[in-house]
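DM from R.C. (forwarded with permission)

"hey, sorry to bug you on a friday — could you get me a structure for this? deadline for the figure draft is monday and I only need the backbone to look sensible"
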Amino acid sequence: MSNLKTTKNLNWLYKLRFSLILVFICSLSINYANAQSRLGWTTQKVNFRSGPGTDYGVISSLSPGQQIFIISSETENDFYNIIDIKSNREGYIHKSFVKLGKIVEEQQGGLFESNGSTSNYSPEAEIFNNTDVELTLKINSTIHYFSPHQKKTITLSPGQSSYRASAPGVVPYIGNEYLQSNMKYTWQFYIVTTYR
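My reply, with the result:
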């Protein structure tokens, strides 16, 4: 009799364990979906701050209906980390002043073109800002700034890299790229169009 109870208890524990794992996996997929970048608009005049709270300094005021790029749908202290598309400045606004728009899809590869090899273990990329505006290029956690028509070579880390390219008046371009060691890459930034 004691073996039967033990078996029933173990079966119950296995079912509970499976249920908890399933709930955990579902919550991970929900969090991933919520963390996506989106377009959005301000619903009224709002303070655009340097950090996620009212104790942070005000960068500027954003007008009602101003288009923004929401870096992540997850908030910090109920503030979204955003880019003001008009000025290309990064900061924070309270979520109560935001109307969410469409999800901005991440591009998978294809941004950097292979351009031969290098003796340097770390990949190198020659970036050309082929526009009349300043380009901001964030690769992983490093931000690079490019003046209009500036070309420069940057050294990157091999492996999977996430990037965000932005400029005033343009919806940021985001994605992931796998960069191989001992390789040279090129990339040219140009503006095709803007959209609301």
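R.C.: lifesaver. Residues 12-34 have pLDDT under 50 and may be disordered.
me: no worries. Residues 137 and 165 are 5 Å apart (CA to CA).
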